[in-house]
Structure formats: C-alpha cells, structure tokens
Amino acid sequence: MSENSWNAPDDNSTQPTQGRQDQQKEWKLIEKLLLASGKEQRRARRWGIAFKLLTFVYLFALLFLLTPTLKMEGSVGVKASHTGLVDVRGVIAEGEMAAADQIVQGLRAAFENKHSKAVILRINSPGGSPVQAGYVYDEIKRLRELHPKKRLYAVISDLGASGGYYIAAAADEIYADKASLVGSIGVISSSFGFSDAMKRMGVERRVFTAGESKAFLDPFSPMKEADTEFWQSVLDVTHRQFIAQVKQGRGDRLQEDSKLFSGLIWSGEQALELGLIDGLGSTGYVARDIIGEENIIDYTPKLSPFEQFTDRLGMSIGRTMANYFGAERQLEYR
Questions:
Q1: Were both Cys, which of 77, 100, 203, 239 would link to 198 (CB 3.0–4.6 Å)?
Q2: Could you report the per-residue pLDDT of 110-157, keeping only the tens digit for each?
Q3: Does 168 fall in a domain?
Q4: Is residue 37 part of a domain?
Q5: pLDDT score at 12
Q6: Do the domain assignments include residue 130?
C-alpha cells in the first residue's frame, strides 16, 4: 500500500460525526426558537394584564371624578327665593329612582329650606309598591304639618296612576295636562300557573313546608279555593286602605261615581271633572301662575351612573334569586 493511500481521509468514518454535529445545531436552533417564543408569550401576557389594569383604574377614576355620588342640584344653602321641585319618575319601589327614601330626602330638603316658597312634586309613574307609596304619603302629611305655610303641589306629567296617584293625593292641590293619564285606583297581584303543563310533561312537584299554607302561592301547584279567597281578601283590604287615603287627601272634591275606585284610568280632562285633580297645567305653569315664583330648584337626589349600575345589578341578582325560590310575588298599585 502506498503512503498516499495510507494517509487519505476515510469518508465513511467522518460521516457519522458530521451528522451528529448537524443534528446538535438543529436542536440548538429549535431550542432558541422555543425559548424566544416563550419569552414573547410571557411578555405579551404581561402587557395584556397591564393594559387591562390600567383600563380598569382609568374607568373607576373617571367615574369618581366626573360623577359625584348622591347629590341634589338644589341644596339647603340656596338663599334666593325659589320653587322647590322633587321628581317621582318611574316605578315606585325600593332600589329604583322613585324609591321612598329618595323622594323623602328631596322633600325634606325642599321643605326645610326657608327660601323655598312652595314645593312641586312632579310625578310620572305607573305606580308600584303600596309600602313605598305609603311611606311617601305619610311623610308628606308630616312635612305639611311641620310647615303649614308652605304648600305642596303635585303635577302629573304623562302618567300618575295607582301608587303615583296615591302619593299625589297627599298634596294640597293636583295639576295635570289635559291628556295626562290619571287614576287607576286599584291593587293587582299577578303570576302564572304551571300545574297542568307539568302534568302533561310528567314532572312531579315536590314541596316541603312547615305550615299548611306556606306554599299557597306556588305557581307549580294548583290553587285551592280557600287560598284564592284568602288572597282576594288581602287585595281587598289593601284596596280599602288606598281608597281611604285618597278620600282623606281629596276630601269633598271627589265626585260621586261608582267607577271612581274601580281601577280605571282617565285623561286629565276627565280627572278634573271627577275631582281627582284641581286644574290643568304644567310644572312651569304652577310655579309661575299658582305659586308666583318662576325660579325652580331641583331637590331630587341623583345617583351617579356607577351607583345606578351597582344598585340595579344588586336588585337584578336579588330578583333572580327571588324568582328562583318562588318569592317574587307582591302586591302593586298598578
């Protein structure tokens, strides 16, 4: 064998080494790519969390700075002569804009300010809770006794029905537009019955109670005649209470009419003939021509949008739970 052939490289011996080196390079490259990808993902997550937190903080700061909490446009510090105004807007119920606490707070502030010449209660409500309406009615009577020289005028805009009219009846005088809807002096309680549908579907209702009448309003069980009579008696008693308060507030201004307390609703023009209201006119008309003070200061307490959202969210959750457990069954002046 020649020297040249003895020293020549062996191609077969170098190929495995070269292959391993190439393979290691590929794995290192893959490892770098994976590490880089992981870093990018972690960085993206961190930035995403940071942006969400900043947005959350910004929104809360904006709500806090731009929308004050409970406030009244007209405060007890107003020293110029004016007509006080309190709104009753929407359903009269706890947690709503027309909750008794809201209305009463505004009325107290308006009556207690010695510079308010009189107070207007502007009503646009279909009614609501008898309890909430009763609270407002009683507070109006109390404030009128404490401030006998300061008159309260109720002004019905679009709608002053049921609980809305119940509150208006406590005022010294009531005004409305000729096309306003006034009255609906009645009580309602409504629900659905699913007992027959459950029988057809083969669903068995299992209710366990302590007290023979505890589940008498259960919509999934058939109503008994005795339960129906009892519940009707509750409605009748509440209706008599409503009628008594209206008669106390309106006195001999009410006309004799068999349908007056039937739950019917009338236009403002018809309501004037029946003695349900004292005249036709708007808030501006009453302030200018009846009270004699055009400067109107609004005493209606107002919640910030954030508070309204949280209140409604809480009420929504509460009502959902009440509906789920069958507890959402209430009387309403509607």
A1: 203
A2: 999 999 999 999 999 999 999 999 999 999 999 999 999 999 999 999
A3: yes
A4: no
A5: 53
A6: yes
